Structure formats: C-alpha cells, structure tokens
Amino acid sequence: MAEHESEVAQVHQSTDNVEKVATTDVAVSDVVDEKAPFATPDGEEPNEEEKRTLKRVAEHLPASAWLVAVIELSERFTYYGTQGIFQNYIQRPLDGSEGRGALGMGHQGATGLSTFFQFWCYVTPILGAVIADQYLGKYKTIAVFCGVYIVGLLILLLTALPPALEHGSGLGGFIVAIIVIGLGTGGIKSNVAPLIADQYTRKKMAIQTKPNGERVILDPAVTVQRIYMIFYGCINVGSLSLLATPYMERDIGFWSAFLLCLCMFLVGTGALVLGRKYYVVRPPQGQVITDAFRCMGLMIKHFNMDAAKPTWQAENGYNSVSRWDDHFVDEVKRAIIACKVFAFYPIYWVVYNQFSNNFVTQAGQMEAHGIPNDLMQNFDPISIIVFLPILELAIYPVMRKLHIPFKPITRIAVGFCVASLAMVYAAIVQHLIYAAGPCYDSPLCDASIIDGVATGNKVHIAIQTPAYVLIGLSEIFASVSGLEYAYTKAPPSMKSFVQSMYLLTNAFGSAIGEALTPVAYDPAILWMFVGLAVASFLAGIIFFGCFYKLNAKEEELNALDADEYGPDQHGVAPATQVGK
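Now predict its structure.
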C-alpha cells in the first residue's frame, strides 16, 4: 500500500466538531490549518460533511494486481480463442463443402454442444470456490487448475490434428477436452477475480491532500470499481485472440489455432509461478462454507435472518453451541443479499451468449467479402476496450465530481436494457437476411453454392457490427458491476464462493439457451431474438424495481469488511505473500 505523505492545506469548514487523532501507519500531518480546525487530517476517515462534499477518487493498483491481470488475460485469450471457433468446428463437415469444419453436426448440434460447454464452464467454479475457501486458498487452487486446463488443451489439440479427425477421433476427443477444460476454467474463474481485488488492502475511506492543495477522499469502493474495469479490460484484450484464430482455422487448420491458445496459456501459467512471492493471499478458512449453509438452515428453520446468531439463540432459550459469532451471521446475510441480486442474471447471459453461437451462424448467412464469419465476434471486445477508458477516465469521474450517483444496481439495470437493444438489432439484421436473395429465409441453400462452397444472402457481413458493439457496452454495465458486487458484498472468508454463485448464473443462462436450441433454425430464430429483447428489457426494469433501495445501503454493506478486522485502519485481513 503506497504511503500518503502530504500536508493539510486550506479546506472547507467542517460541521463536525470532533477532531480526529491520527493513529494509522499512513504518514499523517500532525498540524491542522488554524482556519480549518475541524478538518480531518490526512490518512483519517472523512467525517459526514466531507463525505458529502469532497470528491472520491481511486488509488493506483499494486504491481501484484497487474500480475493477476496477466494471468486472466492469458486464460481468456485461450478460452475465447478456442470457444470462438467451436461453432464452425462442430457445425461444418470435414470435407469443406461449407467452408472449413471438422465434426459436421449442423447448426443445432453446434449450438447445443457449444452451449453445453458454456454451461459447464460456469458450473465448475463452485468446485474451485469450495477448494479455495476451505482447503487450499485462492493461489494454490488456481495453480492446480492451471494444470488441469493444460491437460484439456492438449487433448483438444491432439484430437484436432488431421490424422485424428480422419480416423474419427474428433468428436470423442472434443467432448473429453471440453469437460477437462471446463474443470480448469471453473477452478480459475472463481478465484482469479477475488484474488486481484485482494491485492488492494484498504477497506476504509481516507482523506488525502493532493500536491495542488485539493482534498479528496480515497474511496475503496471506487478503487475496487477501477480494479474490475481494468480486470475486464484485460479479459477483452485476451479475447482479441479471435483476430487470429479464425484466419488460422481457415488457412491452416483448427489445430493451429488450438496450439496458439495452448502456448499463450503456458505464458500465463509461467506468470503465476514466477510471481508467486509477490501475491497477497488470504488463508483458507476451514469449514466456512459448511458453516454458512448451517447458518442459512437456522434462518429458514426459524423464519428469521438473525436466528443463527448466538445472541439470538441465547435470548430465545436455545442451548445450541455455534462455531461462529454474530458478525459471521451478518456476513452470511450480506452474501445472501448479493445472491438475490444475481437471480436476474440468467436472462442477461442468454442474450450475451448469442454472440458466440447464433451470431456466428448469422454472420455465415451473409456475404463475407473475405471475412471469416467467426471474426466478427471481435467487435465485442473492441467496443469494450474503446468504451472502458472513456467511462473510467472521463464520464465516471465527472459524475462523481458532480455527485451524480451511478451505483452498481443502477449500472446493472442499464446493462440489461442495452443488451435488449442488441437483440432488437440482431432481429432486424435477421429480417434483412431473409428479405435478400438468393436463398431468402433458407440461407446457404443450393442456389448460393459457388465453386462448391455455399455463400450467404446478399447482405454485407459488416452490417452485424452494431449488435456486437451493443453487447460489449452492456457488459461494461452489467458484467463488470456484477464482478464488483460479488467481491464487495462477499464476506472475506467467502469471496471465491460468492464469486462462484455469480458465475453460476451464467450456467443457468446457458441452460436456458440450451432449452432454446430447438428454435435455433431458420426462420424461427428471428422470433427468438425478438423474445430475448423483450425478456432482457423487462428483466432490467423489474430488477431495478426490486433492488434500487440497495443503492442507499451501498456504503453500509461495504463497511462490514472493515469491521471484520478490528482496530486496523485499513481493515487488512491476516494475509501473507505466497513465497514468504
């Protein structure tokens, strides 16, 4: 944690008449300006007047957080680089009659298998979370599951080689590979998101005077928001692997794309191992998840959220002996609030997942002009990479300076509504495809075959771009805020588990997508897009109506972490560096 060394400058008169004493390990000025005798010294918590009037700013990320970001970048490079070309790999036949392919299972078969893979990748984080929170800790769990991931990638690569495909090993090898890769990505995903935020240890607001004399509040909530914006930016830089893998798939073969992804993943694993001495890690907490479920059982049994507290048990004549205290029960209650918020996310993920399956098929139904149909997916991460810094460095700071609240619940609701616009646009594009020849509502029919390859209807593939851009913009609001909410509302002892609950909503979204597979055919898919647009918009409105009151409790809920750690100003949990 960087030390904050500055003198207290001219400040506004405070209405709080209690002068706080500097008692922290942060360098604090011992002298307060005579003209502002009640101003809070640097390093101390702001008073209520200062909270209302001073600008809140984020701190710089520690170096270890950037190392974690590199690990996530390489994992997402691998995930999207492989998963993004699965649709063609599964859908198209090996003989190349519809362009390069491998398994020849058709549109519905491809959508079904790729959707199962997405579902599996977001169920397995529960296993990774339990192992991390109760047994190994986040760092060791990530290291173990990196090994599992590498095994899955090797199976995928070897069974995609031309001799293996020609001898019928493709389908069996693919199924085994996605199961093993799903285990690997699940163990990593549930732990890497909380691990990056763990590198930042301040838990309470603090006053800081800038060199220009401006007094600001160092706000942990704003810093965590920045951490997850950067984290999500790294995810999307990694997903730009789809700029390369579609061309490698088309011009060399799927095996070459899978090899590239394997090599990149080895780079990330190397960063994990070589940087092991620098990570701040929290030790596993034993039977914390088991205890949490026992607490919830008591809450349900007595129809009272406080029923698991030892004080409540004693006051009501119960003699049960608990392994936890009242504060732990408050933590569990906070985790339940977070999980209630996540209940609407499956609808969002159904919409989001369209960009990696049905949007790819839609792109293949248009005139490509030399552009691989699965290359269009890159407009999603590109839009995120463009809009993230604009929001983080321009729009959000201005809103904070003007004291315009844009808290997580509001951002999530906006994300749902923007996603609905993406589906509206996708439906319009699908209508344009069906209105154009030569195949109209039966794209890739025999009339479109040129030189033995079926080509799309006479609609330019670039018209699909805004759909990906809108999906990307929705992610900044809904997905980034979900990661942030999962971390800030989770108790310190259950960060990975609550993160896995958030990721599980993606699995439910994939399950709904799997149920919609029977209507993923022409021309019914147009109405599926319309239905998803309506569902996402209504979900966003209902979500905000249900949870908008939580915006007012944001600081109160976030403050529980600081209370956990007793007298320490920064609320730093007992933590170690892995190599020490």
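The longest strand covers residues 206-209.
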